[in-house]
Amino acid sequence: MAPFGTGTSREVPLDADGIEVGGSVFLQAMDQGPRFEAAGEVRLLGAKIGGQLSCLGGSFQNPDGNALSADGIEVGGGVFLQARDQGPRFEAAGAVRLDGAKIGGSLSCIGGSFQNPTGDALSADGIEVGGGVFLQARDQGPRFEAAGAVRLLGAKIGGQLSCLGGSFHNPTGDALSADGIEVGGSVHLRALDQGPRFEAAGAVRLLGAKIGGQFSCIGGSFHNKSGSALAADGMEVKDGVLVRPNSGIAPSFAGNVSLVAVKIDGHFQWREVEGEHGVDLCHASAVTLDLDQVVHPEMWQLNGFRYHGLAEPENADGAEMLKLLRECDGQKYFPQPYRQLFRVLRDAGHAEEATNVAVAMREQAFVHERVELSRDKPRLWWARSWLSEFWQWVSWLIGYGYRPWRAVGIALTLWLIGTVAYSVVALGPFESLMAPAEGDLLAAAQAQPEHDWRSGGPPFVSWLYSLDRFMPVVDLGQASFFRPKGSTGFTILGADVGWWLSALDWVLIASGWILSLLFAGSVSGLMRKIDSDT
């Protein structure tokens, strides 16, 4: 063991590049004694240390350059750049460099202070750590603080990456850069239980990261209004992604969250998150989804996002997700998110809720078609727009193919209207309101108006006549024998009663054909394309 530099103060840089030590190296504070203090750069480039490198409570001051340079160092045990129990914290003014380091144990910076506001506070690109990396607060003690960038690009960590309660401050750049990182355990960018929250001023980047456990942002604060607060495109997480409050402290994002093509082999939870932000989950995937109280849904992107189920019990009906889909379409309509939710709800046995999603998808499709037509204005766009409006209206009558029994209700309503109207006819001066339908009987009635042309014919039955007019193809013997006169001498609202009755006839005939065709198409499934598209 080599207690190198313990409790000493140096006025000049310490140069130990390439040093080989079979035991440990201590550049730390003594128990109830002086601390290690260095004014100038401490160099351990390419050093080989069989034991640990301990800088507990040490002070490394070189604000205009590197405070500690240990690129390529190999340490058999752990590296401790942290606060000492019941003693001073580790402090570095200037960059701490561990690029390409190989550490057999853990890298612990618990409670440490890394100050280099104009550059890298801690640079550990390509580092290999057998244990965990701890950039976090101490229980009931100081928190990890970095002013300047913290870099872990391409790092390989056997254990966890814990930033519990840590403070990462680099508002003009990246607060934490960990693109391509591989972590065997979990990544915690979250609040410490009963302690401070994780705070990042500047971008947090984990592009292409591979995480063997959870990715937890419980109670964390991410602020980068000039860009992405959290960028983790292509990240792979073996467990869940958790973004939810901790001990009443809600997570907060100021700046967008980019999770494009993220693969989550577990739970994706996003609950009670505050701040001005959008979330991009395009082409991401998760096993289960738990969304609640989404703010600014219009800023979300969900095209290509796939999941297998919804969290129980309060979100099992998909109401929150459907609300998000309705509001996040923006300027571009994508059917896939609706189809995804439809399939999940249908497979879970929520048939009515799945139908609601299918109907909402059709409604949004018509809305965006209308917007596109008005924007592009192709030739005869007004005609296409009118046809689109008409088709949307008739499709709505049967719930876009998913509520065919709505057509039955409309049909019964129209039949009752006709029955009431024709009942009034039957009670009034019948001869002046109705005429024979056609043929010789019509000619005889016109030649001899006083003749009782109804003798020998069927009796007039108002409800049967209304049904005969409404039902296509079927002949009940009423419509073929009776018809309203074009002119009766009676007027309502300035129009002849015969005109009103004739108009009602045509409404019933047209409605009967339209509703019958829509009902048939709905029951047969011809209108429900979403079933086959999922």
Plain-language structure description:
The chain is of the alpha/beta class and 534 residues long. The chain has 10 helices and 38 strands. A hairpin with a 2-residue loop joins strand 37 (491-492) and strand 38 (495-496). The chain is rod-shaped, with a radius of gyration of 38 Å. The two termini are 66 Å apart.
Give a brief rundown of this model.
This protein has 534 residues and is α/β, with parallel strands linked by helices. The protein is built from 10 helices and 38 strands. Helix 5 (405-427) packs across helix 8 (462-470).
List key phrases describing it.
534 residues, alpha/beta, 21-stranded parallel beta sheet, 13-stranded parallel beta sheet, 38 strands, 28% strand
